[in-house]
Amino acid sequence: MTEVAPSRAVIKQLSAYFHRNGYVRRVDPVRRKVKGRLYKKGAEVRLVAESRAELAEIRRLLKRAGFKRARPFAKARQWRQPVYGVAEVARFLSLVGKPKRRRKRR
User: Fold this and answer.
1) Of the candidates 40, 50, 54, 69, which lies 20 to 30 Å from 14 by C-alpha distance?
2) Is the pLDDT of residue 1 over 60?
3) Residues 79/48, Cβ–Cβ less than 8 Å
4) Main-chain phi, psi angles of 50, to 5 degrees
5) Cα four-point dihedral sign 72, 73, 74, 78
C-alpha cells in the first residue's frame, strides 16, 4: 500500500462512484474458520463503471489516491474495478466513508 495523501477532489470523485453503486465484499470469519484454506474469499471493494471511459477515470483516480489497482472485469454490461486487501479496503473506506446498508435479498 502506497501512503499518498490524495486531494479532496480525488476523494470526492471516488466517493461519488462508490456511493452510486459500488460495494464491499468482506471476509466471513465463520466460513474462514470452518473451511480454513479452502475459503479463498478476501476483503474487496468494487467500483462499478458504466463505460470504458468511466472505468479509465476510476482507474486514474485510484492511482492518484495511491491504491494498487487490480485487473477490471466485465459483468452485466458494466465494468467492475476491484481493490483487494484488508488494509486497502480499510484505507478506501476511511477516505470515502462507510457504505450505506442495503436490504438483503430474499
Assistant:
1) 40
2) no
3) yes
4) -80, -20
5) negative
User: What are the residues whose beta carbons fall under 8 Å from the beta carbon of 21, sequence distance 6 or more?
Assistant: 48
Read off the pTM: 0.82
Look-up: residue for cell 436490504?
103
| Cβ atoms within 10 Å, residue 25 | 14
Tell me how long the chain is: 106
Kindly state the helix (H) or strand (E) to which residue 75 belongs, with its residue range: strand 73-75
The CATH number that domain 8-96 falls under is: 3.10.28.10
Q: What is the pLDDT of residues 80-99, one digit of tens each?
A: 999 999 899 999 999 998 87
| CA dihedral (5, 6, 8, 11) positive or negative | negative
Question: Which triple of cell numbers denotes residue 15?
Answer: 466517493
Q: Among candidates 71, 69, 101, 93, which has minimal Cα distance to 14?
A: 93
